[in-house]
Write a structure and sequence with these properties.
- Keywords: Cytoplasm, Gluconeogenesis, Glycolysis, Isomerase.
- The chain has 245 residues and is an alpha/beta fold.
- Helix content is 41%, strand content 15%.
- It contains 10 helices and 8 strands.
- The protein has an 8-stranded parallel beta barrel, surrounded by 6 helices.
- The protein binds phosphoenolpyruvate (PEP).
């Protein structure tokens, strides 16, 4: 039985006054212990967020594949652990698009995170052009083939299917399309890691809101959501946690 996971991605949003939202979200998570909830905040908020909500999971949105070195502006897994992060997103489509991150980088980042005990949310998803050309399945399968880290296991790795064209656009695939892609991902994972794939959570991400969460979370093989815009305030995020409960 896979527990639902509702993960927020604050992207490049959030200053210290927003810690009060984290406090309120953590309180709601406490009230729904049957659901796992977490927030991936900007690096600058990780330590403060972990301090104000020690029983709530705080994560980061990226990590460098090396533990240290001449990598200006990057951050390593040991640094994230020291700051209080427990989880990290890798392979987000905004990293792939803005920073030319490939599935090979994603693979190396996931491995670095694992070496230091961080849980990993590994993103995959097709562009609008790939979707319209009927290439979504192949693209997503190939991303998983190239980025799934060695020793991938459900206790530390979660997959997020995020069609790029649905991120921040208010557009979502149909429930049938989501079901099809999640089934394809589950089959792909089974082929790569065997029966433990049945325990691995596969999140859907892309314009999830309080209004559509219940129907998306009810789709077969959807084990939770990765949420951007609607995770920034308790008012928007808590209804998604409640929909998962
Ligand atoms: C995301 O950033 O991973 C995401 C899904 O964003 P949004 O919910 O805003 O579409």
């Amino acid at each position: 039985m896979r527990r639902k996971l509702v993960a927020g991605n604050w992207k490049m949003h959030g200053m210290r006054p927003h810690l009060r939202e984290i406090d309120a979200i953590a309180a709601a998570a406490r009230a729904h212990p049957q659901v796992d909830a977490l927030l991936c905040v900007p690096y600058t908020l990780i330590a403060a967020a972990a301090d104000i909500a020690p029983d709530f999971t705080i994560g980061a949105q990226d990590v460098h594949e090396s533990d240290q070195g001449a990598h200006t502006g990057d951050i390593s897994a040991p640094m994230l652990v020291e700051a209080g992060a427990k989880v990290v997103i890798v392979g987000h489509s905004e990293r792939r698009a803005d920073h030319a991150e490939t599935s090979h980088h994603t693979w190396a980042k996931a491995a670095a995170a694992r070496r230091h005990g961080l849980n990993v949310i590994l993103c995959c998803g097709e562009t609008e052009a790939e979707h319209d050309a009927g290439r979504a399945e192949r693209i997503v399968q190939s991303q998983i083939e190239k980025s799934l880290p060695d020793g991938a296991a459900p206790d530390w790795l979660t997959i997020a299917y995020e069609p790029r064209w649905a991120i921040g656009t208010g557009k979502t695939p149909t429930l049938d399309e989501i079901a099809t892609m999640h089934a394809i991902l589950r089959a792909k994972l089974r082929g790569m890691i065997g029966p433990s794939a049945n325990e691995m959570r596969i999140l859907y991400g892309g314009s999830v809101s309080g209004a559509n969460a219940a129907s998306i979370l009810a789709v077969d093989d959807v084990d939770g959501a990765l949420v951007g815009g609607a995770s920034l305030t308790a008012a928007k995020f808590v209804p998604i946690i409640e929909a998962a409960a």
